[in-house]
Amino acid sequence: MSNDQGGEDTGRESVEIIRAGVVTVSDKGYAGEREDASGPLLADLLRKMGAEVVSQTIVPDERGLIERALVALADEAHVDLVLTTGGTGPAPRDVTPEATRAVIEREVPGLAEALRFEGYRKTPLAVISRGVAGIRRRTLIVNLPGSPRAVREGMETLAPILPHAIKMLRGVHTEHEREGAHA
Fold first, then answer.
1. Tens digit of pLDDT for each residue in 127-167?
2. Segment 94-118 mean pLDDT
3. Cα four-point dihedral sign 128, 129, 135, 136
4. Total number of domains constituting the chain
């Protein structure tokens, strides 16, 4: 069978590159008192799954600055995906979830739940992460904890989900082609 471009149909969906932004939230990282290991790791893992990382930034644990970074990536850079790392715990300055909720239009609670559930399989402390996931316009925003280990484990959970989620946000893939698919 041939596809619309006259080539052979491989049975696989065509994949448009995911444009992504990474935001590290860390007072010490922003001040240069600690090297940011999680942001570069997250960017590398995104590239390995075929994404184009168009922005990688670090901001302090200040709600207004986090909100501005998220809005700029969604509304000005028009990225498909923003992944944050850091600021999701219960410490007084951990405000990434609040900043994210302030800028998203719709939550995607299943992503945050999956991250906590899979994280719990490795450490019971994963359940104290308050990270959220949601949509602003056509940008998916997901909070990950700040440790490199949590970033790696979180991406293991997200990698098989993100391409389909982005296609749905783009309005490209909104029908369920196989029985048992849920969304």
1. 999 999 999 999 999 999 999 999 999 999 999 999 999 99
2. 97
3. positive
4. 1
CA 111 to each of CA 42, 77, 131: distance values in angstroms, whole numbers, following the listed order = 17, 23, 10
Q: Residues, the chain, total? A: 183
| C-alpha gyration radius of the chain | 17
What CATH number does the domain containing 55 carry?
Answer: 3.40.980.10
In a domain, 13, yes or no: no
Residue 69 has pLDDT above 90, yes or no: yes
Give the torsion through C-alpha atoms of 41, 46, 49, 52, to 10 deg. Answer: -140
Domain annotation covers residue 93 = yes
pTM for the structure as a whole: 0.87
Flag whether 120 is in a domain.
Answer: yes
- Cα–Cα distance measured from residue 98 to residue 132, given in angstroms and rounded to the nearest whole number: 9
27 CB-near residues (< 8 Å, 6+ apart): 60, 61, 93
pLDDT reading at 179 higher than 60: no
| Distance of alpha carbon 114 from alpha carbon 119, whole angstroms | 8
pLDDT of res. 4: 39
